[in-house]
Design brief:
This protein has a single domain, classed as 3-Layer(aba) Sandwich (Rossmann fold), CATH 3.40.50. 25% of the residues lie in helices and 28% in strands. The strands form four sheets. The chain has a nine-stranded mixed beta sheet with strand order 3-2-4-5-1-10-11-16-17, with helices on both faces. The chain is built from eight helices and 17 strands.
């Protein structure tokens, strides 16, 4: 499903002030190594970089570096490639996922990040940074609406998690309809909707759910009928025999078998 590294894919609006469960998972993944924050997605890179730098330092990471790759020329430049080298963890902020892929896609930096992931470096994305992790990503679609044909705009993602499409701020913005649309258009792709203050930790061809809310999985592999086509583009979708799972903290999912994994009590495992 991907490289040898760990992916932490966050639905956005993660707790930054109290328990910081998800961001502690990020720092644990870095160990004592360097965290590189990439602010490409946001139009306020200084603000986002400063916010996450302060949080990660409070959580015990001394070596934090912010890199604002703002153009394809930046993504080809040796100075930025050198700055990301040696990172134990790369963190993508929120913003606009299309900025990430249109700036990094097909560049030396995009290639380098995949090579780093294959070597075991942890890659993290929150909000727009989460959407960009998958092989295909949702760029735009109707929130809080019944699924309709031709209402979801999609584009290639960074491809760190193959065979999946990620949506974020999921329950909070009523995005079940647009995730269903995305899966209807790409039935071979597993749809994963991640709520705010919730993340999936992907490693070894499975993921585990952490955080305070839920993850919704839409599986179109069993789809027996769909009325998806370019004719009558405003028509409501009709789908038969799709699967859906809703998982909260402590549950997991096997990405190869496409099956949920039952609750595991972490405290009991470690006792």
């Amino acid at each position: 499903m991907g490289g040898k590294g760990k992916l932490i894919i966050i639905g956005g609006a993660e707790d930054k002030e109290n328990e910081c469960e998800i961001l502690k998972e990020v720092t644990d993944s870095a160990g004592q190594g360097k965290i590189v924050i990439i602010t490409t997605a946001t139009q306020k890179p200084a603000e986002a970089g400063r916010l996450y730098s302060e949080i990660f330092r409070k959580l015990g990471i001394e070596n934090v570096e912010v890199i604002n790759i703002n153009s394809r020329q930046d993504a080809q430049a040796d100075i930025f490639l050198q700055r990301v080298e040696g990172a134990a963890c790369v963190f993508f902020t929120g913003g606009d996922q299309l900025r990430i892929t249109s700036i990094l896609g097909g560049t030396l930096m995009g290639t380098k990040l995949k090579e780093m992931f294959d070597r075991g470096v942890a890659i993290v994305g929150t909000s727009a940074g989460a959407s960009a992790m998958s092989s295909v990503m949702i760029v735009a679609g109707n929130d809080e609406d019944s699924p309709r044909k031709c209402t979801v705009k999609m584009a290639p993602g960074l491809g760190l998690l193959s065979g999946c499409v990620i949506d974020q701020h999921f329950a909070q913005r009523g995005r079940i309809g647009r995730l269903i649309c995305a899966v209807a258009q790409n039935p071979h792709v597993l749809g994963i909707g991640i709520d705010e203050d919730t993340a999936i930790v992907v490693q070894d061809e499975r993921f585990d759910v952490i955080g305070s809310q839920a993850v919704t999985i839409v599986d179109g592999s069993t789809l027996s009928f769909s009325n998806v086509s370019e004719t009558k583009p405003d028509e409501l979708l009709a789908l038969m025999d799709i699967k859906m799972h809703v998982l909260s903290k402590g549950y997991g999912f096997d990405l190869i078998k496409r099956k949920p994994i039952g609750y595991r009590e972490v405290d009991n495992e470690n006792s």
